[in-house]
Amino acid sequence: MLQECKERISALNSQIEEEKNKQRQLRLDFEEQLEDLMGQHKDLWKFHRPEQMAREIGTLDSSKEQLLKEEKLVEAKLEDVKHRLCSQFGADGCSTIAEGLFLRSQEAAAAVHLFEEENRKAQELLEAASHHHEQLQQKCQQLQQKRQRLKEELEKLGMQIPARAQSKQEEGAGPGEPVSPGIRPRAAHQARPCALLGKDSPCPGAYSMNFKK
After folding, report:
1. DSSP H stretches of helix in 174-203
2. What's the half-sphere exposure (Cβ side, CA atoms, 13 Å) at 22?
3. Burial (Cβ within 10 Å: 0-12, 13-18, ≥19) of residue 117
4. What is the distance in angstroms between the CA of the first residue and the CA of the last residue of the chain?
5. In the chain, which residues have pLDDT < 70?
6. How far apart are alpha carbons 63 and 91 in whole angstroms?
């Protein structure tokens, strides 16, 4: 029993030591991170101090002035070389040199870029116009086909209408009475009562005609 208690106490002591070591390591890591952050903050604070900012601005200004001086010297040297070449090769050589310098300049690159942009836009407009033209051609072809179908249907109807009119005239004339193509069915119906009255009997239409005269 006493041995068990000793073993438990030793196990608990070892666990306590492990926890202490873990806590000590975590505290050390935290202190290192804190020191690192404080160092970064200190560097930023030093950099953003008014004195440091003024020194940085002065350094940048001096660098800018130095670059401008170097650029002016390079331009002067280029002009000198250009004059020498012009004096050596004449006016034609000078113009050729000027063209070569222009083609290598930023203005030439910008002009080429603008030309490429305009060319691309023109190609897009041409493709759109071509597509629209194809659509119009398809619509025109469809309209022509529709017109041809309507024309054929009208021609068929024109052939059927006279045949129907002739059949109606034959039905109105009655059996055994031929109807000429020029006589309408209504006239044929009006002529039938006169035929029934006889040749000598006057037709009612005759009285009406004489009355009108």
Report:
1. 185-197
2. 6
3. exposed
4. 160
5. 1, 47-48, 88-105, 108, 159-213
6. 39
Rounded Cα distance, 115 and 17, in Å? 79
DSSP 99-136: HHHHHTSHHHHHHHHHHHHHHHHHHHHHHHHHHHHHHH
User: What is the distance between the alpha carbons of residues 82 and 98, in angstroms, rounded to a whole number?
Assistant: 8
Neighbouring C-beta atoms of residue 85, cutoff 10 Å: 15
pTM of the model: 0.28
CB-based contacts of 96: which residues, under 8 Å, 6+ apart?
Answer: 89
Check residue 193 and give its pLDDT.
Answer: 42
Query: How many angstroms separate the Cα of 88 from the Cα of each of 26, 91, 191?
Result: 80, 9, 121
CA 194 to chain CA centroid, Å, is: 82
| Contacts for 184 with CB less than 8 Å, ≥ 6 apart | 169
How far is it, in rounded angstroms, from Cα 203 to Cα 182? 21
Closest CA to 203 of 212, 213, 190: 190
